Amino acid sequence: MAQNGGRLRLLAFESETVADIAAKPARRPGFHRSRGARLLVGLAGFIVSVLITFLGLLAITFFIGRLVPIDPVLAVVGDRAPRAVYEAARLQMGLDQPVPIQFIRYVASVLSGDLGTSVSTGKLVLDDLKRVFPATLEMATLGIIIGVLLGVPMGVYAASRRGSLVDQIIRVIGLLGYAVPAFWLGLVGLAVFYARLKWVAGPGRLDIFYDGLIDPVTGIVLIDSLLAGETDIFFNALWHLALPASVLGFFSLAYIARMTRSFMLDQLSQEYVTTARVKGVSERLVIWRHAFRPILVPLITVIGLSYAGLLEGSVMIETIFSWPGIGNYLTVALLNADMSAVLGATLVIGAVFIGINKISDVLYRVLDPRAR
Predict the structure, then answer these.
(1) Which of 19, 81, 140, 348 is deepest in the core (most CB within 10 A)?
(2) Any idea where the domains of the chain sit in the sequence?
């Protein structure tokens, strides 16, 4: 009887196990469908968000072009053009149409890649931006690398040594990054490190001797020189890039170090950090494994915003260092009342800012399961 009862229980257990296993595949398709539906909804929402934001950027740039006290027709035909020529140009530019029609035409032209023709250069604005934007990207990228490599360890160290002399010095550096004007720091850097000490090269992107010796494959001289195997040009470009990138890196460093310190102070005061210390975990592991990892998500957002700020805020630095980037291009366009170039450069900078923000949001969701 005992053996029969054991067999019955074993058979019942096996039947239940088989039934459970057979039932699992029936639930999986619905699970995958619901997960796939959530992914599609999230992707659609992301695309709609980008489109709405970009449409808002188009509206802002359009109305800026209409509100500034600059006549785009006069910028094309000149002040001494006859009235008939002025009216013909005005009709050709579509400025006689109602504002909503002008905006629709503006959106259509931008989406087709037509940003107009620059009065300053006589070329298409899109071609000009393709030529100057890689220079800004090169300088801003090196600047954010300097800011991250120095700012993050400085912020972590300042938080771990709160109240010490090193903490006070790092906090002063952070305040200087907010208080010192960019043009002043750039001029002082040229006077000291270029004119006096001869440690770096002067204004410009390359020495005149090297200008035009390599084909612009990517537009970034450091990459193009390596692709061409021209190490002399690479080091000359790096020599020219060192000072302006360091100036940008200082402002990025100050912001990143300050925010890293703030994030770390919040984490170091948490109970799990105290528990790890009580358990005898080394201070290095407590700082970098227990306290630093949770701040990666907000820190990525800070770095992304800082990078976007370098791309859009390098106008003064590029002017001082005669750097042929989008900031210098925008300054020349403003001085020449070249509204097509101004609006095109503004649109590109805004689009880059939107793109970096959206990438930061995606990384935020990837690294933080709570956001998903």
Answers:
(1) 140
(2) 1-55, 72-111, 125-371
Residue 189 has pLDDT above 70, yes or no: yes
Tokens 């992301």 correspond to 46
Which pair of tokens denotes residue 78? 């000149």
Q: How confident is the model at residue 260 (pLDDT cuts 50, 70, 90)?
A: very high
CA distance 220 to 17: 63
Asked whether 315 and 331 are in contact (CB, 8 A), the reply is: yes
Give the pLDDT mean for 168-180: 88
Model-wide pTM > 0.90 = no
Residue 368 in 3-state DSSP? coil
One-character DSSP codes across 297-347:
HHHHHHHHHHHHHHHHS-HHHHHHTT--SHHHHHHHHHHTT-HHHHHHHHH
Q: Is the pLDDT of residue 331 over 80?
A: yes
d(CA 74, CA 86): 7
pLDDT at 273 over 90: no
Q: What is the phi-psi region of residue 233: left when phi exceeds 0, alpha when psi lies from -120 to 50, beta otherwise?
A: alpha
Residue 336 · residue 119 · CB < 8 Å: yes
Query: What is the CATH T-level fold of the domain 125-371, as seen in this structure?
Result: MetI-like fold (1.10.3720)
**Residues linked to residue 117 through DSSP beta bridges, in sequence order:** 124
Residue 249's identity, in one-letter code, is G
12 token code pair: 């019942």
Taking the CA of residue 343 as centre, how many other CA atoms within 13 Å lie in the half-sphere pointing to its CB?
29
Q: Using CA atoms, how far apart are residues 239 and 341, in angstroms rounded to an integer? A: 30
Residues 1-45 pLDDT 10s: 444 444 544 444 444 444 444 444 444 555 455 666 776 776 777
Token pair 């504002």 is found at 99
Length of the chain: 372
How many Cβ atoms from other residues are within 10 Å of residue 369's Cβ?
A: 7
